[in-house]
Amino acid sequence: MKQLFTPFRILGATLLLALATGCATTTTTASHTDLLTAAGFRLMTADNPKKQEVLNTLPKDQLSVVTYKGKTFYVQPAAAANQAYVGTPKEYQAYQQLRVAKQISNDNLMAAQMNQDAMMGWGNAWGPGFYGGFYGGRYR
């Protein structure tokens, strides 16, 4: 009977890992596209063959610099086929500022959580006196 449960446990663990990985990448991608939209990038469709060809040559999940009719644009292919987020240098600068602000916000949040844990005494699970602390390093 134990041999019957072992494949199910392996399958269950694999599915759980795949689900967790899928959710993590979706959150990152959604967050990235939210920043692009907030910075003023527009979601555009490649409506002619030349635009589709350029879009297909761009790396996925990465902003690329494209010169079109003498103007510079920043382009990020979208998850949907034949679509991309397109912005000007001004919008790219706004995107960079938003990205830095978000990173600083995340760093501040992490520091606040660490300080809260330290203030609540979660840092030393054994309590004072065990392996150091008030009693000079000896457990009595």
Entry summary:
By secondary structure, the chain is of the alpha+beta class. The protein is built from 3 helices and 4 strands, in the order αβαβββα. The chain has a domain at 32-127.
Helicity level = 55-70%
How big is the Rg? Answer: 25 Å
Q: In angstroms, what separates the terminal alpha carbons?
A: 49 Å
Q: Based on helices, strands and strand pairing, what is the structural class? A: alpha+beta
Tally of separate helices: 3
Sequence of secondary-structure elements: HEHEEEH
Shape designation: flat
Structure, described:
A hairpin with a 2-residue loop joins strand 2 and strand 3. The chain has 140 residues and is of the alpha+beta class. The protein has a domain at 32-127. Helices cover 56% and strands 15% of the residues. It contains three helices and four strands, in the order H-E-H-E-E-E-H. The model has no long low-confidence stretch (mean pLDDT 76). It has a four-stranded antiparallel β-sheet.
Reconstruct the topology from this structure.
Layout: H1 2-39, E1 42-45, H2 49-57, E2 64-68, E3 71-77, E4 83-87, H3 89-119
Antiparallel strand pairs: 1-4, 2-3, 3-4
Labels describing this entry:
140 residues; alpha+beta; four-stranded antiparallel sheet; 15% strand
